[in-house]
Amino acid sequence: MKILGIGNAIVDVICKVDDQYLIDNKLTKSTMKLVDESEFKKLLSTLNIEETVSGGSVANSIVGLSQLGNDVGFIGKVNADDLGKKYEEGLTKEKVQYFYNKKQETLPTGTCLILITPDAERTMVTFLGISGKINEQDINEKIIKESEMIFLEGYLWDEGEPKSAFNKAMLFSKTKAMSLSDQFCVERHKSNFLDLVKNKLDITFANEQEIRSLIDAKSFEDVIEFGKQLGKLLIITRGEKGSIAIKNHEIMECQSKPNIKIVDLTGAGDLFAAGFLHGLINNVSTKECLEKGTEMSSKIIQKIGARLD
Length: 309
Hints:
alpha/beta, nine-stranded mixed sheet
């Protein structure tokens, strides 16, 4: 198998809201907030649902890779409830091998409210449910050893137990890639993430805000300098400023696509990672990897949700 994704198995619940809704509910635009089940249900009761889909950051990337014709799999924990069954069906339909056996759990399948404002920004409210309880027993050592690369998400560090799963996966993998996931996530786990990026990962994906937060950069020049010194592959997305890949002293840039009607930014980073990794495992140049990532993210932001049809 080319790439095995390991992440939070989350059912995305997509809803349109106005800016006042975020203000009224004390939500910070464009970030992800973790909530308990009661707060989640309270918010859900006030919303009109547009769509539900098998999501989670890395799962979105893995589906994108599958749609590009790659042999990929995913490990993420769900309950044997209705949403858990729908989650597995959603991945199987996309030809993603799902390496997790559902069973009855005390917590329900994880769910994420994706709140889309008129400016196309998405603000996420997540109840991790059982997805946040993934542990080392859920990690299939044989599957990891048979995969060319694992792809992890920073969100996995938001609960205690997944760290053992995370570390076990890292121990047995050939090539390790990770997305930093979210600026608040970076700020919560800065020292751990910095250690991972510097000493354990081979490939790191981040947006500009996340990487600047990670290294306390005063300017983007600080980020460039950090990337040069890192000696690993660092890929940074910069919205309308395009994207950049740094390895040693090689720096490649790619412009964003012009004149795009943005509908929803959900999955932009996830699909960018899918495009870039597709190029990487198919041995194209770094520039072409950036271009494929840009193509994929440009397509996804012109529709609702994180799935290309």
